[in-house]
Design goal:
With 212 residues, the chain is an all-alpha fold. It has nine helices and two strands, in the order βαααααααβαα.
């Protein structure tokens, strides 16, 4: 965003850095996870230095992801609480997917879809942490019975796949809505973008009574 005078700060530096560090860690964790889930992708664990090193680093990097997401959760949860307008967003989902901008939706900082993504990611990362501790050898797995470890393996694999699908959807939507990438790169968005996509938030940060 070159013209900062005509821009609004949407994402703080701390949240942006946490986000991109989390992205880097998630990439390596996901690739190593896929290498064990699909034998044909075994070569992916070489990204973390080979099978042995990958098995050591995978859980530690997973904990780093959880810590970073917890920090982002604390900073952003107040913007992702359910609101009455969220029902209007879901009711007009067809228009949203077509790129239409219904002024009646009066979206806040995050729309209903982004809120679902937010809570979905936080729920799945929590499941991954709990199940990951259960199957984490040699630190914790010996504390649990074999049937519990088997359940932990299933939950961990399922939650991991679902989280990867959510992240893929997140990436797609970030590129689909032009201007969204600026929010996580420079941290700023244009006033026009804010008025168009998040009019209620625009009014809050500018003090204007309408989105004009």
């Amino acid at each position: 965003m070159n013209n900062r005078q005509n821009a609004l700060l949407r994402t703080t530096y701390a949240v942006r850095m946490s986000h991109w560090l989390m992205v880097i860690c998630f990439f390596f964790v996901a690739m190593s996870g896929l290498s064990w889930f699909f034998p044909s992708l075994n070569w992916l664990n070489s990204l973390l230095g080979g099978p042995q090193l990958a098995r050591i680093l995978h859980p530690f990097m997973g904990v780093v992801i959880f810590v970073l997401l917890t920090f982002m959760f604390i900073r952003l949860v107040r913007y992702n609480l359910p609101e009455a307008n969220d029902l209007k967003w879901f009711a007009d989902i067809g228009g949203v997917l077509k790129g239409e901008h219904n002024e009646e939706l009066d979206t806040g900082k995050y729309n209903a879809g982004q809120k679902v993504l937010f809570w979905g990611i936080m729920g799945l990362i929590t499941l991954l942490l709990i199940s990951g501790v259960v199957i984490w050898r040699p630190w914790f797995a010996h504390l649990f019975e074999i049937p519990v470890i088997r359940i932990g393996l299933f939950v961990h694999a399922l939650a991991g796949v679902l989280l990867m699908l959510l992240i893929i959807g997140h990436i797609y939507l970030a590129f689909w809505v032009k201007g969204s990438i600026d929010s996580m790169s420079s941290g700023y968005v244009s006033r026009k973008w804010a008025r168009t996509h998040h009019p209620s938030w625009y009014r809050q940060v500018t003090g204007k009574k309408d989105a004009q």
